[in-house]
Amino acid sequence: MNSTLKRAAVACLAMFALLMLNVNYLQAVNAEKLRGDPRNTRNYYERYAIERGRITAGGKVIAQSVETDSDKFKFIRQYPEAKLYAHVTGFFSPESASAIEQSENKLLDGSSADLLLRRSIDLFTGEPTRGASVDLTIDPKAQKAAYDALRQSGRRGAVVALDPKTGGILAMVSLPTYDPTELSGTDKGKVFSRYDELAKQKDQPLLNRTIAQTYPPGSTFKVVTMAAYLEEDPSRGPQSTIEAPQRLPLPNTNISLPNYGGSACGSGQVTLVFALEKSCNTPFGKMGLDLGYEAMKEQTEKFGMGKPVAVPMSVAESNFGPKEDQAAVAMASIGQRSNRMTPLQMAMIAAGIANDGTVMKPYLVKKITDAKGDAVDEADPDELVTDAVSSETAAKLREMMVSVVSNGTANLAQVPGVQVAGKTGTAETSDGAPPHAWFISFAPADDPKVALAVIVESGAAKVGAEATGGHTAAPIAQAVLKAVLDK
Asked: Quick one: which H or E segment has residue 384?
């Protein structure tokens, strides 16, 4: 009898121990997973029980929570000018979020450790928990100008503008766009159905082309090739000369690199500034061949490529391309072959030249304030690369890029009374689609307030064979430059 009782007692103790282990596992180890499980209806309702903080830009509210009459959903998210800022704010859906709504979620919903003091005070005073507000670096005038000008092109594309001295993002526009309000409702069926519709669309409205998509940069990349060429020999300058044949033979191949449209570039020997003004291919292919793959790749890295960047959303990696043969180096040096850049990276290149060779870390969040308006955190601009090029090389590049706008392919980017620097680009695509139209720029050239990059996908089909970055993308840039500088 005693042995039977002992066995029963041991079995009970074992089951009790297993029960305690399971309870601790559920409450400690697996708690976060269960809390975030989409089937957790309590979590679903709690997402809408707290008044999330506002997202603002230049004094404008671009996302906010508004109170409802519902017993289940106390607050819903609202987006004034929703499509204009969609890829900046993102959406706040029943089970997920995107862009700033996602990256700053813990601040917006008040659960961040940075808001512990505020939550403690609210608990003591009996006030409900409210999220922090996120103020962005976006300039509403620049954002609207970029959106309107790009939309008028009738094409997909992106515009990103930076303050070259701080790295603050002044405009971030990607088209086509979408309405985040449709993805931020409380009806899961409608929200998920609409998301699936948008995700399946061929033109990818959910894609933020400024940071999540890479493209061949075309001739805008020639400023990087020119930078490497000037850095190799500091005695070189805008009036130095280089060979510019009508076609450049590519090593170990039976093909040659032509200039745009098969045209000649001067008389076969041109100045560096002329080569950039006219965007000749052959002199830049020659520069790439002379410099070699390692020197070219090193120069791209000096402009920030290969370094992880978050703004705070993660940015796709730009890349010069893998090491292949000399012919590939020549093609990559004019922005083709495997060379792939995000619009943000090209804007960073323009900004680095504008800022005397220093590339600043790009960022979107300017300031965080709690529900009472007290500052929680403020942006502290930081350098990403201090010596992308020397200040002397930056000055030479600045002079040549000004000449591109004044005398070369980018005259449509001119702003009356302002010295504008820029570089056009027309990038062939591997899928046989019409070329992309590019433009990078900064202004005023002597004291830059804005640097930017514009890409119009298949933009060279817009007005026929003569369409280039100078015809399609430069006017969009001009509108943004005017919006920033017209204060």
From this structure: strand 383-385
Q: How far is CA 351 from the centre of its chain?
A: 14
The answer to whether residues 159 and 173 touch, using CB atoms and an 8 Å cutoff, is yes
Residue among 478, 447, 417 nearest 354 (CA): 447
For residue 333, the SS3 value is coil
Ranges 68-82, 255-269, 286-300, most confident: 286-300
Band the pLDDT of 125: cuts 50, 70, 90. confident
* Least confident interval from 194-208, 345-359, 422-436: 422-436
Nearest-angstrom CA–CA distance, 353 and 222: 13
Helix ranges, 29-98 (H): 31-36, 41-46, 82-89
Residues in contact with 381: Cβ distance below 8 Å, sequence separation at least 6, in sequence order: 165, 166, 167, 168, 360, 361, 363
Known catalytic membership, residue 3: no
d(CA 376, CA 461): 49
CATH 3.40.50.300 is right for the domain spanning 218-364+382-485: no
Does the pLDDT of residue 18 top 90, yes or no? no
Q: What angle do CA 430, 433, 436 make, to 5 degrees?
A: 85
What is the sign, positive or negative, of the torsion defined by CA atoms of 354, 356, 358, 360? Answer: negative
d(CA 275, CA 141): 35
367 forms beta bridges with: 135, 378
Q: What is the rounded (10 degree) CA torsion for 230, 249, 407, 450?
A: -50
Q: How confident is the model at residue 28 (pLDDT cuts 50, 70, 90)?
A: low
Closest among 140, 148, 200, 149 to 170, alpha carbons compared: 140
Place of tokens 């052959």: 282
Distance CA 56, CA 408 (A): 39
Closest by CA position to 163, among listed 379, 444, 362: 362
Helices (H), 130-252: 140-152, 188-200, 222-232
Using CB atoms within 10 Å of the CB of residue 181, give its burial: 0 to 12 exposed, 13 to 18 middle, 19+ buried.
Answer: middle
Catalytic residue among 153, 219, 333, 441: 219
Interacting residues of 56 by C-beta distance below 8 A, sequence separation 6+: 62, 133, 134, 135, 136
- Buried b vs exposed e over 35-50: b needs ≥16 C-beta within 10 Å? eeeeeeeeebbebbeb
pTM of the predicted model as reported, rounded to 2 decimal places: 0.89
Comparing CA positions, the residue from 245, 250, 290 lying closest to residue 269 is 245
The answer to whether 146 and 173 have CB atoms below 8 angstroms apart is yes
pLDDT, tens only, 364-406: 999 999 988 889 899 999 999 889 999 999 999 999 999 999 9
What does the mean pLDDT of the chain come to? 90
